[in-house]
Amino acid sequence: MWLKPECGVTSNLWILLFLILPAVCCTNLSPGNAVVLPEIPFEKLSEYHFFEEPLINLRPAERVLPYDLITPLFSDYAQKARFIWMPEGVSATLAEGEEIDFPVGTVLIKNFYYPADQNKQKTMVETRLLIKRENQWDPLTYIWNEEQNDASLEIAGDFRKINSHRPDGEEFTIDYSIPNLNQCKGCHERNRKVVPVGPTLENLNRTYAYQDGEKNQLEKWSELNYLNGLDPGADHDKLADWSDPTAPLHDRALAYLQVNCGTCHHNEGPANVSGLRLTTEEENLFNLGVNKPPVSAGKGSGGLKYDIVPGKPDESILVYRMESLEPGAMMPEMGRKLVHREGVQLIRKWIEEMEQ
Predict the structure, then answer these.
(1) How far is CA 43 from CA 61, 157, 225, in A?
(2) Greater confidence, 25 or 310?
(3) What tens digit of pLDDT does each residue of 281-303 get?
(4) Are 132 and 103 in contact, with CB atoms under 8 Å apart?
(5) 322: part of which helix (H) or strand (E)?
(6) 331 SS3 class
(7) Cα angle at 186 between 327 and 144, to 5 degrees?
């Protein structure tokens, strides 16, 4: 079942461009089934040749490399299959502060799906592309069809009825929200520019089970010339796994908050005016929200005084907003229709164990 939101922007303009502009607009054209990266986005995901047919199996084409993150963003329990592709002859480099500088032509591919169970097959929902152009990153969203054999470009966003279950087996039904172009920019904005937020050096620094065996992802990228400048002997930063009960609680909590909240709540993010800095680099407890009053009161505060009250999660605005589903109060404000119970439980425990 599809629910179409009201929106003044449609994909008709893109379709018109596809009909008018000649095929010579494409660059990196290669024979056969090699990846094709056009200047104007394709209407169908299959046209890029990122994956072999049938598309739903997500078998990557040559030079399309799978990767995973240590701590991922919560997206209503959707699973994600991530891949990266770069043209021949280019590599990412390590910039100051171990930030990855991706070359022009890089494509980050993120597939959202709900896994199969005893009652139904895997359900592909959307595939998001982030394409590095000469002066910017272009976010694109492709929505999978009912036949589950391809996905179509959609810049206006959409909704899809999803029936699935939580990790504990409890079933849920939601109108899964597929973001429009402006919403994509809202989460990926830094200093008013769209940037990748998931594949950071510290969040990639983990082992991955490749077809030819397990290997650290950073080493694999370096081996395939996808990443230059990596010192194999260096002790690179590594983000904590939010779900690892053996890791320090503080590190787990900050990793979770950085990924789920820190894209906005950092010095260069759209929520920087709040003064709340939810990143692993922040050492000032007040900036992390401890005994910090909100910049503006109202519905978002739930009538509470401070973002975090040590030892008292029920008096902490941070927990209130994570547990809320009300517009204007819930945080993150986009990208979820459900409360992430396991994430809330982690933050509750973190606050409970803070010194008062």
Answers:
(1) 19, 15, 30
(2) 310
(3) 999 999 999 999 998 757 789 99
(4) yes
(5) helix 317-323
(6) coil
(7) 85
3-state secondary structure of 202: helix
Evaluate whether 193 touches 136 at the Cβ level (below 8 Å).
yes
Q: Cβ of 79: how many Cβ atoms within 10 Å?
A: 15
- What is the domain count for the chain? 2
* Residues 200 and 274 both lie in one domain: no
Is 209 inside a domain boundary? Answer: yes
Of 125, 197, 161, the C-alpha closest to 337 is 161
Pairing type for strands 137-144 and 123-132 reads antiparallel
Residue type, 216: N
Q: Residues 234-251: pLDDT tens digits?
A: 889 999 999 999 999 999
Residue 239 belongs to some domain of the structure: no
pLDDT at 17 over 50: no
Q: Quick one: 178 and 299 in the same domain?
A: no
Range of the domain at 130: 2-228
Among 345, 318, 314, residue whose Cα is nearest residue 329: 318
List pLDDT tens digits, range 299-326. 789 999 999 999 999 999 999 999 999 9
Answer yes or no: do 205 and 104 share one domain.
yes
